[in-house]
Every structure is written in C-alpha cells, then in structure tokens.
Amino acid sequence: MLEDGGTSASIHQQSGQDSLKDLSAETKPFEGELVKEESVPEDGEIGQVLQTAQVDINMLDVTMPGTLKEAEKQKLNFINTSTKLMAISPESSMKLLEDASHVSPPPSSVPTTTLPLTFSDRIFLGFPGSWMQYLFFYYFQYPTSHFMETTLPKLKASLSLTLQHFFPFAGNLVFPPLPQMPYILYTEGDSVSFIVYESSEDFNHFIGDHARHAQDFQPLFPKSPPEVESKSSGCTQKPNMAIQVAVFPDVGISIGVGFSHVLGDGRTDAHFMKSWAAIHKSQGDLTCFTNCFPTFDRDLVNDPSGRASGLFMKNERVFQGSSSTSSVFFNNVRVTCKIKRSQVELLKSWVKKTCMEVYGSEPIRMSTFVVTCAYTWVCLTKLQQIGTHQNPSPDDFDAVSYFHFPVDCRGHLKLPETYFGNCVLLRMTAAKKSELLGENGILVAATVIGREIMEFQEQPFKDAETSWAKVVEIIKMIKDSIFVTSSPKFGVYTSDFGWGRPKKIEFGNIASFGSVSSFSISENSEEEGGVEFGIALPPHESDSFNTIFHRGLLKLS
C-alpha cells in the first residue's frame, strides 16, 4: 500500500496484487442512461436556434448528389449546437483530494536503464505541442469515499505493475550539457505523479458531442511536470508522464494522462492505456499481458545521416509542453463528429462511382481513413470559405490547402506493433481550394490522400529526414494546413478498467488558429466500423461546421 502522505512511495508487487483482489464487486458497467436535458431543442425552438446561429443552410452545402428534403432540414436543425455557449468554471469546482502521490514500478523490478533517442524521437524535442494529453471518461456510480478507499489503491497497484513493463514512462528525459544528446533514464525509485480531484461539474457536459469550451477541460488534463536542474552534473531532467484523476461523485470519473511525445507516439500510449486497463480489470493477473509486453529494440530505428542530431544542435534546448497551456487551446470549442459504418460505406460507394465517371477508373486507394478524412478536409475547407465570404481575396479561390497525416512505420521496419517509441512519419498532400470546394471535392481529397499513402508504401522513407522541416516551414508561412492526430486502428475505446468502455475520449492536442487546424480521429465509440472526429474550432464557427458536416452525411442517405 502507499504510505500516507508519501511523496515518492512505491507500490510493492505483492501488496499491489492484494489490492486488486475483490475488484469484481465494483467493476460493473453502468446500467441505465444519463441524458443532458438541454442538449436538444424543442420543436418550437428550431427557428430560434437557426436564427441564433445565423447559419445560411444553402451557403453551407456539401456538394454531393441528391437534394435535401424538408424533413431532413428539420432533422439537421436538431443537430445544431447553437444554444448559447457559456464556459463553466471548473477550476473553482475542483476539490483537491490527493496531490503528493507518486507511483513507481515494484521495488527492484527494473534495473537502471538508459535508452537513446532515435531520429523519430528527437524530432519532438522542439516540436510544438510535444506534451501529449488524453482524457478517458468512464461511468462510475459510486461516491467519492468509495473511490478513495477502494478503487484508488487498486488503480495505483495496477499502474505500478504496468510501469514495470513501461518503465520509461516512470523515468526522466535527461538533457546533458551540449554537445551531448538527450536520452531517457530510469533509476530505482523513479515514479509517475498521480493527482486526484473531485469535480462538482456536470459529467454529461464533458462526455457530450456538442460544442464545449476547451477551457472547461484544462483543469482535468495533467500538467507537464517542471524540469529539475542538477548543478553538480549540469544535466536537466524532466519527468516523462503525469496522471490526474477526477471523480464526479455517483456518476463518473475521468483519467487524464500526459506524457512526452519524445518517448513515444500514439500507438505507444494506446498500448500503455490498454495494458493498464487490462491489468486492473484482471485484478493483477499478468497472464493476460504475456504476449503484449512492449519491446525496446532500436537497432532498426536510426538516423544514418545524423540529420536529427544536427536539427537538435541547431535548435539547442527547447523543452516540450509550452503549448499545452497556450491561449489557442483556451479560445477554442471542442465538438465531436461521428460517422457511422453505414455512412462510411456510402462515402466509399460515392467516391468509387464518381471516380469511374470522372476518371474512367477506380480510386487509387479507398479505405475508411481515406474517405472519412477526405470528407472532413472538404468540410473544414468550406468552413474557411465562409470565413472569407464577406471579403474574399482574389487569391483565396486559387490558394492551396495542405493536409498532413501521420503514418506508422513499424511494419516497414519489421518492428512489432508493441515497439515502444516513436515510429511515425508525417506525410503531406495538397489540393487547390477551388477543387475541394467544387462538385467533386471529396473525390479530389480522397484521390490525393490515397496517392500519398500509395507513394509511402512504395518508398516509405523517401524524404523522411526533411518531411518535418517542410511542415515547420509551411506553418511559419501561415499556410492553410490541416493536421490529423491518432488513428482508428489504435482501438483506444477498448481501454476497459472493469467499468465498461470509455464513454468519451478527448485528445488534448487539437486546436484551430487562423488557417491552421487539427483534429483527432479514432474508432466510433458507439459502433464498430465507424469513426469519430474530435475537432477544435473558434466558438463562432462551431454551429456552421456542424451544419456542413451533418448535412453532407444526411445527403448520403
């Protein structure tokens, strides 16, 4: 058990397993339904809602075959989120329950270990937004006292067992004096900060799909831990992970996870979360985990030209995490847009049919990722067009829109999916806005995304060393750019601690500022085969985007 008030207490493996016993008494899934009453307007309010939103439905058309019937327009009105957006004040409603807790791997279970950074890791040393943040929301129908006395010890015990195998997360990122390169270091006693709050806010507000102010979520995300400088060695160390739990009494809990992107990519973090959840659910039975241990073989992930070292030396020492509290994130609202499996199939059918009509051949590549990202790209481009509708520039219509998406290189390097670290490249494609806004805009987007994926598969590491530098240059020039984070293949919604699947997952590192925006993509939380997008927008654009996005889907059916 953790020592009372201990600042760096570790959880012994045996006691951790004891803490996980009798877990089945509390790990029942939520039964029943929680409904946010104000989320859907009454019939008589539809006109008022549209008037408040100031949305011209005809201007927001997503060009696809077919017409929108009057009944569908009424259905669309219900989708709008334009009741007045008011930011709540969650910081004032957050009661600190535990702030001095740290969780370590079981004593003597991991030797002192040093891991070098690969080329893919070093890229994120100075990259904006490299402190990654996720929120997992679960129904949990118990009072706070039950959580603190029964659930919290088991969460920590299972986390300790998980960190035994994911030990770099408990370690530190070490910055030695230049010209030495940073590295990952784990030593006995290293730990992960674990903070617990109680929130009196509406749990349903956070798990909804409607527009919610980004600042509402900030108190729930774990902060990037401060670095510590050693005068004797001249090294600076920065913890690699932090965890923060918030209890919504008798309703639910949120588990916030923050970690340095220098340590690993989205697949690495998803692997960690699913492992922690599985160990907790199994009451510490590691046999369910035997074939899923992370691997740390870095021999095949290197920097043969030394370019990563050069980039680091040029940028010197830029610590990650500065953008996690950027005003950009505070000034956005978050919306969740879902595409059902049936709608994915309709999108694929439309793209295939139109491609045959326009090009006389089938699409280069037509996957769920390609067609859904193409659709969202077009929707965001149409939203940007509305922003310039009043004072359009002659160059607006001929401007180029850039689309950036990560690709996992594990398969190309013959690495297992359980490889711990960064193994992603950022691919970029582009299309003229005039083409994206045209009748076949979705086909145009799907074609260029599909072509980029095919080129990657044929020559996966062509221009790999300069791809990130190109992205930085484009951002500096304030070019129209859209970035995608995460992947439906990660299966983040399978992270079941024993309370059922997450009701909602929020990705912290999405934002919209000027002509640059980003969105997350994951599997649909409600059904298999669909996808779910988390999108950050300026508050005044959320209703317009919802109208564009959902109207296009309605026209498919």
From TrEMBL:
Keywords associated with the record? Acyltransferase, Transferase
Would the keyword Chaperone turn up in this protein's UniProt record?
A: no
Q: Where is this region: Disordered?
A: 1-42
Annotated Basic and acidic residues bias: 19-39
Q: Which residues form the DUF7750 domain?
A: 47-75
User: Where is composition skewed (Polar residues) in this entry?
Assistant: 7-18
Q: Which GO terms describe its molecular function?
A: acyltransferase activity, transferring groups other than amino-acyl groups
For this protein, the parts annotated as crossing the membrane are: none
One of this protein's Pfam families, by short name? Transferase
Q: Which InterPro entries match?
A: CAT-like_dom_sf, DUF7750, Plant_metabolite_acyltrans
> Does the keyword section mention Cell division?
no
Name the UniProt record assigns to this protein: DUF7750 domain-containing protein
